[in-house]
Write a structure and sequence with these properties.
This protein is α/β, with parallel strands linked by helices. The chain has 13 helices and 8 strands. About 35% of the residues are buried. The chain binds 3-methyl-2-oxobutanoic acid.
Length: about 325
């Protein structure tokens, strides 16, 4: 396996954090600004989730349609900006269900082409041999049980899992089997808190909860949900830490209003030119010969009009960094 770049959180640190009782912070991201914000906020793990289907690509209520190529594109953008956090590429539906070989090939694409530090896949049962095969290829795998959105139809929708004693026992067994298969961590989604606590206690690798109560070793939320960019219904487990969609709507409405009224742009947003150049420009453009030549140039549009415009000057670029 290649050596992680300097400053990158080493994978074994997650297990050490669990042992110390130090909570692991994970968030999803889908682009470079999101990854940079996560990095600057000290987030430990960034998941390029297949929730991208819903929060970025505009599919409603399903993660299934997002493709490998789309996930690789998004993962690359996150990898460029997230230096310290571990970046996990979420394997989309269809990329690991067919066979162990296909799963390994696609995991390698995340690792090699997109630069992800690890991959995540959903489920236990048939996913266990996929986990073993990918880990054997040298790629770390994060498991995911409970509500697994790729199989939401089979689960009867986006519902809490493990609510009966039998289903809860099955969840414990699935999580243990994922650890046994080689997962370095397991996401528990929409699982009753006592069941997640039991799993967390039994596993030596960290559990990362989303709607799984406070006893998990870490927590994950979807970026757009926690920032209030998602509109409409949100699951009960989401806590909104900001209301960015309101702010964005207000800002865009304000901008549109100011463009229409002429209030924007103001003098401070416009460029000047030296007074003598402006004078020369105005006399050039208004001289009869220039007007004739301009008219001629417009007619033929093949030969550029010769004017008395001053020699070209080298100007600084308009947008080098963030502002000119
Ligand atoms: O795709 C995703 O964002 C996820 C998280 C909800 C864990 O799998």
């Amino acid at each position: 396996m290649s050596t992680p770049p300097q400053g990158k959180l080493a994978l074994p640190k997650l297990a050490e954090m669990k042992a110390r009782g130090e909570k692991i912070v994970m968030v999803t991201a889908y682009d470079a600004p999101g990854a940079r914000f996560a990095e600057d906020s000290g987030v430990d793990v960034v998941l390029v989730g297949d929730t991208a289907a819903m929060v970025v690509l505009g599919y409603e209520g399903t993660t299934v349609p997002v493709t490998m190529d789309e996930m690789l594109f998004l993962t690359r953008t996150v990898v460029r900006a997230a230096r310290r956090p571990l970046v996990i590429g979420d394997m989309p539906f269809g990329s690991y269900q067919v066979s162990d070989e296909a799963a390994v090939e696609n995991a390698i694409r995340f690792f090699k082409e997109a630069g992800a530090d690890a991959v995540k896949l959903e489920g236990a049962g048939p996913s266990l041999s996929r986990v073993r095969a990918i880990v054997q290829a040298g790629i770390p795998v994060m498991g995911h049980v409970g509500l697994t959105p790729q199989s939401a139809t089979m689960l009867g929708g986006f519902k809490t899992q493990g609510k009966t004693a039998k289903a809860a026992v099955q969840l414990v067994e699935d999580a243990l089997a994922l650890e046994e298969a080689g997962c370095f961590a397991v996401v528990l989604e929409a699982v009753p808190a006592p069941v997640a606590a039991e799993i967390t206690q039994r596993l030596t690798v960290p559990t990362i909860g989303i709607g799984a109560g406070p006893e998990c070793d870490g927590q994950v939320l979807v970026y757009h949900d926690l920032l209030g960019l998602t509109e409409g219904h949100l699951p009960r487990f989401v806590k909104r830490y900001a209301s960015l969609s309101r702010e964005i709507r207000d800002a865009l409405e304000n901008y549109a209003e100011e463009v229409r009224s002429g209030a924007f742009p103001e003098e401070q947003h416009s460029y000047e030119m030296p007074a003598e150049e402006l004078e020369l420009f105005e006399s050039s453009i208004h001289s009869p010969s220039t007007s004739r030549q301009s008219a001629q140039a417009t007619k033929t549009s093949s030969t550029p009009a010769k004017t008395h415009s001053p020699a070209p000057r080298s100007e600084p670029p308009l947008r080098k960094t963030s502002s000119p």
